């Protein structure tokens, strides 16, 4: 048997195109060929199970071998094998329709997977790294003869009698000069670990040393002997292929450690398993979410039939769920997947919605079953839930019932519960419920205590997402405002119909304004004499809530550049009812008036963390002299 011919691809330029367009992603050749070998092994097992093959199956195995001296990589399986006719059908007839269209469309292509996936070029990815590819194969069919196929990367091929004596296929790649890095055992093992770590058929790559029991020594103690065994690089039955009822918590945690060896234990996990209207399995873990979002992303690994595809799952998993860790496996997502495919595929959109629902259901279940335990975890998962509320409308519809607001007393409330808690005390004269919050309880303690004296509750909003979450709540909740606790004096945080009058006359107020204006050295300070509780501080420095928010958003790149460029502007509220103001007015000594005013202003600046450097040193020195 001998035959020569040309591969039916209707263009002489196809192999140079493959090499050029796929070269940047050339390691996928091993993924493609090993995946094909695994498929062949699984198919013979299925035929045997159906009674269509009665021969000896043997132990299913795919073996990868490298010979650096001969510059070859060999992938061998004991699967179906092929006849010469099947080689012609499956290897030679790469049926491109409109080759010129192909060349034109993909001449600027950057996504190798897009080309491979669109045109079924899995096997031909071998030519990215090879000058010559040889196939030796023997079909499982009765009476089949071994066949050999060889191609040098041109459109010419040769089929002849093969020398294989056992069922299966052996593909030998003669590595080209540009790809000799793949002749390194370490490099190949790294690729096999990446793409084949959980393939369903054992993948052997070289050998390793094992110490096995070998009787007892002269003293009766057990002894071992070193033996060389096949180095199987994969786990064929990862936990996502098993039923949740068959798995223990220890197994879930062990798998997590296998994926992320240096990570803290996760908080909890979700086992995904759906077969309609799409197939999807997987395990998603909730890590302890840190403030650094970027460190958390791209930790979900996407598989197709246990073959690793990518850890960039943005189009499959909603943006906020990118903070989760774990594995998703779906045969409905092709192995050769491209970003354009993901964005357009209807199954991907269904998967996206399904995962959002499963995550919301899990959180709701935890909240309902063990609210105390849920609240204890809130410090770790609150950031994640808030991110979901802000970014995903479908998630908000479910999460609004288990999202929590935490106050500075470390008490937790759902959105509905918190509204009921504060509405009676914190509704302004316009009927708006005002939520007061702190971003730094230690720094803002003076303001928090003043608010608490008025029976106001203060929320804690100090996570990386809270700047957006605050605006989100105002937009989402009816007739609700949020104000930072230090954005005004406590008496002015919530505007009421009743107001405390200042005891000062108009003339006295003007005199006080002049004294304090002269004592201020910082720019952007506007002095105002107001009537406050005599127990409040004599001077309070605040920045308007709106202006501060706009400037913070500008710093975060939120499109508020105009505000970011504006100078800081502060209100200096002088408590006309405080005894210090009366003391200042009673003295005729301008120097003493200025000294007391300066001391009161610096105290107010100190409360806001705005007193630093030489001014702080001067304040300390002045305080010592006043004692």
From TrEMBL:
- Residue ranges annotated as transmembrane are none
Which domain of life, per UniProt?
Answer: Bacteria
Protein known as: Molecular chaperone HtpG
Species classification:
Bacteria, Pseudomonadati, Bacteroidota, Sphingobacteriia, Sphingobacteriales
Q: Which family does it belong to?
A: Belongs to the heat shock protein 90 family.
Ordered alphabetically, the record's keywords are:
ATP-binding, Chaperone, Nucleotide-binding
Task: Cite the CDD domains for this sequence.
Answer: HATPase_Hsp90-like (cd16927)
Database matches in SUPFAM superfamilies: ATPase domain of HSP90 chaperone/DNA topoisomerase II/histidine kinase, Ribosomal protein S5 domain 2-like
Q: Which InterPro entries match?
A: HATPase_C_sf (IPR036890), HSP90_C (IPR037196), Hsp90_fam (IPR001404), Hsp90_N (IPR020575), Ribosomal_Su5_D2-typ_SF (IPR020568)
Specify one Pfam family: HATPase_c_3
